[in-house]
Design goal:
The chain is an alpha/beta fold and 319 residues long. It has one domain: NAD(P)-binding Rossmann-like Domain (Rossmann fold, 3-Layer(aba) Sandwich). It has 11 helices and 10 strands. The strands form 2 sheets. The chain has an 8-stranded mixed beta sheet, sandwiched between helices. A two-stranded parallel ribbon has the order 7-8. Strand 4, helix 6 and strand 5 form a beta-alpha-beta unit. Helix 2 packs across helix 9 and helix 7 crosses helix 11. The protein is globular and about 55 Å long. The N and C termini lie far apart (41 Å).
């Protein structure tokens, strides 16, 4: 009988008894928070984790416990990657391609949240450029390393409900900037990217999914002033059916659980091309008063194809 997991499940509970020896897994953003915890539990079950970070010294300090707790041939390798720089993304991809070692799983974990208005090194709005375009370029460049049976897991957010992508004005050149609208756009893009990547690669046995890890207090919220944080909590104050609270924080191990569930434990056909939360596939919910579930626009295949084309245009490469 298959064990079911939920909101309070942790990474160790989800992977209990799993032997990941011989598995090679890429995790972006392993210098703090969910990335470190994800790498820890994977290495503890025997996987070789290739972790990326902008600051390798910070990542080495943050992942000392990952290395110490690795078992059964598991371990950690670090590669420099700044998702806000296409030059850095291309350099990281070149390093991975030169090694020619295939991956069983890619977890696109890194990201930024609720930033003041700004741009990446290439002039893209910071959140869309970092959260979506950086991963779009990296993953497509190394797609040949994803072997049959492998998966891509994109970390999105329930905040995708704040905004659909705006393909005519992705950089807020004509739209008034809001940190949460920008974050919502980037998180919707993470889902749409998984939808289209899954469509393009499923015949080769490679699947993709996206997920909401939950609300976790990590470095991701470092740009959030008390005022911004209060606005976020106010926006999430709607109630779930039955009067359940709409927002409850998770621990970091609980927040990382859906990543390893979707990437390793769940059947590929169950999660492929879809959006997950709390270690299950989310229901389609378009009621703006409901916090959980996935909005229809985030799974729209036509929007996914349009975003792919726009993303190719923005990064200057076709895949």
């Amino acid at each position: 009988m298959t064990k079911t997991f939920g909101f309070e499940s942790t990474t160790d509970e989800v992977l209990k008894g799993a032997d990941l020896s011989g598995k090679r897994i890429l995790v972006t953003g392993v210098s703090a928070g969910l990335g470190v915890e994800t790498a820890r539990t994977l290495a503890a079950h025997g996987a070789l984790v290739v972790g990326t970070a902008r600051d390798l010294d910070k990542a080495r300090r943050a992942t000392e416990a990952v290395v110490a707790g690795a078992t059964n041939g598991g371990g950690l390798e670090l590669v420099e990657l700044d998702l806000a720089s296409l030059a850095s993304v291309r350099s990281c991809a070149d390093v991975l391609l030169a090694a020619s070692n295939p991956f069983d799983l890619v977890i696109a974990n890194a990201g930024v949240m609720a930033c003041p208005q700004g741009t990446t090194a290439d002039g893209f709005e910071t959140q869309f450029g970092t959260n979506h375009l950086g991963h779009f370029l990296l993953i497509n460049r190394i797609a040949s390393l994803l072997k049959p049976g492998s998966r891509l897991v994109n970390l999105s957010s329930a905040a995708h409900r704040f905004a659909d992508v705006h393909l005519d004005d992705p950089n807020f050149e004509r739209t008034p900037y809001s940190e949460f609208t920008a974050y919502g756009r980037s998180k919707t893009a993470n889902i749409l990217f998984a939808v289209e990547f899954d469509r393009r690669h499923r015949q080769k046995g490679v699947r993709a999914t996206a997920l909401h890890p939950g609300g976790i207090q990590t470095e991701l919220g470092r740009h959030m002033t008390p005022e911004i944080r209060q606005r976020l909590m106010d926006s999430l104050s709607a109630s779930l059916p039955g009067g359940l609270p709409a927002m409850k924080y998770k621990t970091v191990p609980q927040g990382s659980a859906t990543s390893v569930w979707a990437g390793i434990v769940a059947p590929a056909d169950l999660v492929g091309g879809l959006y997950c939360e709390d270690c299950h596939v989310a229901e389609l919910v378009d009621d703006p008063a409901v916090f959980n579930g996935v909005r229809a626009y985030a799974l729209n295949p036509d929007r996914a194809r349009a975003l792919w084309a726009k993303s190719e245009e923005m990064v200057g490469e076709r895949f």
